[in-house]
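ingest -> fold -> write
write: protein_1
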Amino acid sequence: MINYKDYLPKGIFAKVFSGLLATSLVVLVIMSLMTGFAIKASIMNWNREKKEDLETILVPMISKAHRLNGGFTESALEATLLPYMTDSLFVYVFDENKRPVLLIEEGRRIRAQDLQAEGRTAQSLLNRNPPLAIKDGSTVIAYLSVDSTDFLAYKANRQFVETMRDAITIGILIAVGLALAVSLVFSTSFSSETKELAAGIVSISGGDHDVAFPKSGTRELTLIARSAETLQRRLEREGRLRRQWMQDISHDLRTPIAAIKSQFEAMVDGVLDTSTKRLERLHSELNHVEALVRNLQELSRYESPEMRIKRTPIASRGFLDNIRERFLFLCEQAGIALECSGETVTFSMDELLMQRCVSNIVQNALQHSEEGGRIRVLLSTRYSDVHITIENTGHIPEADIEWMFDRMYRGNTARPGGGFGLGLSIAKAIVDLHSGSITVENEGQFARFVIVLPQARVS
């Protein structure tokens, strides 16, 4: 008993599950980083816009104070700005030479000695934020460096950011849980489907041709299942044909060999005389066996994967004339009209093989045609494809059409002394070597074989 698990990839569930989960986690990490970056960028934008708003308000007030007082004094400037200061603002005003005039931090005035006590300098305040030049016309009258408390300095803002972080964290946890659940469900379903499909295919390889494949919701797995079902039917049919073929071959070989053997034994025992006529009959039987073996060898060679054809440009007129010359005498003896006609073209093929292919079909038509009948070989083209049609008066039973190209199959309408049932099988094998197709049908009063050689026309 074949264990299908030995043929399955190891850890197919784990691979699919880990792949889906890893993909989901990567997406979550990227989304989390993008959200964090967006929050940080929003805070930075808020701080910048706050600074720009402050500059927009304070610059006119400083310019006005300069005009009214004819310059800057610390007391006048303080009286102008201090009423508008809050405990969240940092305002530093410098004169045109960048010497400090008024320093306000968090709503209170800072003096030079306070800076020194804290280990700071006026230059460090200028470096904190690039100062904005205040002009009166084209003359710089002062420099303003302004800032506000950071966004997160406000309790409401901190609560907002913390709420956002909590929401993101909870969202990530929920998303991870959902990713785990979805990955688990999908992986389990996919693994189950592939295991059942693999088990069925391995069963077919073990000789079981009665395997039922489950229906899948995945397109690719459904296609594989349908292909496996088709393969199963073909294998079953091929097995049946092979068994029938072996029985037919055994019968076709055993009967003449037994007859020949019994006659030779009788002649050896003196029961039968060794006459020329009897020896000729025995020779004919041996020729029959030899022809059967030769046809079997030929079919095996044509169906071999190593078989290669030799394509050459062939003129259609010469090809048809060859067929006509080969069968004209036989058709006249049988009282059957033969017609070979078609377009004058050049097409690419293995001439010897295709002559054999068409000859086999014409020979089959000759065996199944009554006196006064007609056989036609027609050659035509459609675009770059070459069509060769062989038809004869008569009718093929519908039950026989499906089996026409099977080995050793012989319809019951053939004349006595028919062939071995290999001619059409050989013809189909030759057409397959040319990557073509061959079909059979009844059309009116004719039984018709159509060979299509794709992309065969040269000119």
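write: protein_2
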Amino acid sequence: MLERLFNLRSNGTTVRRELVAGVTTFAAMAYILAVNPAILSDGTGMDRNALITATALASALITALMALLTNYPFAVAPGMGLNGFFTFTLVRGAGIPWPAALGIVCYSGILFLLLTVTGLRASLIRSLPHELKVAISAGIGLFVAFIGLQNGGIVVHNDATLVTLGNLRQPAALAVIVGIILAGILCHRRIPGALFLTLFAITVAGFWIPNASGFGSLTRLPDSGRWISWPPSLSPLFLKLDLNWFWNHWRQAVPLVLTLLFLDVFDNLGTLIGLGQRAGYLDQEGNLPRLGRVLTADAGAAIVGSAFGTSTVTTYIESAAGIESGGRTGLTGISVAGCFILSLFLGPLIGIIPAAATAPVLVVVGISMMQGIRTLDLEDLSKAIPVGVTVLAMPLTFSIAEGLALGFVVHVGILLGTGRGRQIRPLSWILTLLFVTQWMTR
């Protein structure tokens, strides 16, 4: 049945490999079960326990839908950055009640779906030149690796230089370095589930590694002493979105809906291209097959997420962890969805995984995503400059969408300035105008 449903043999994979890849992806993105409720509840007053359930259920449902519709190993969850926009721009910045903010998320998802049905969103992806598509993958890789180094305490904040080297005498930082080395050895030897084994090894070793304070270990047993618990009720959030606020305050609401749509479209666009590039799905023109199905599932994610009571749900760059572990079909996604369902009951167990265990996985995944850039001929600086700007801007602005926008505008500007304006498509002109307008009106 699994062979008929997911075409495992033709994709060069096995059930075991897909399940391991799913667990690896889930382990790399499991932090969202704690981070998303913390951001939303602290900034909006939403019920934190209900947000844990909403995050897990929305992620499981849409990831399963993505798997069955597309047969791709792409995992979906509430987007980092998008939850910050929801909290700090919509609720705290604009003073919008959180049910109305959920309504704005829903309306942005509906517009997202309309763009998909009309084919405009697919045209956006096809409008990107091949060099930028590869740069997006490399930029996301650098972004992911940077996050891993930050989470592991290898790179820390510095007032003078923005970032600097962390305290490598800390046991956690040393554990991250050991984890990177271990992952590199296992990947080189092509050990199945190398990244998951790395995460497991550091988590177990963490019971004997002291934490930063020196009191207690890096990995700690659940405070409650229990490994299993019943999931919190979803009732404080389920279907609490306010769809009427938009119509009563449309002058204020329309720009916010369009801004959220803009962020979601281009953040997700970059993620899909990056994942497709790493998995080898892109065709000779750099386009992702079955793109319409991917976009349909993705567009519906925001609508479903708002109904469950969470901010915009989108495809996750951490899906690359499962792809790197050999995941190639929707069975990986089904495995991820199953892990999210189990997480509702295994919250205490998931909570023991330290950042020092996930950090090496993110670093190695990010580096692997950067390898595609070797296929580009960068001797022509008119091509190399937009690539370099895109790759650097994503981690430095901490935004996939902003990095893509900067690289795209630079690309169009160079074409125009070098007498190749005829190569600029009408849609590219429109995108450039939108990017620049957004920057100027902030």
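write: annotation protein_2
The longest strand covers residues 155-158.
The chain has 20 helices and four strands.
pipeline exit 0
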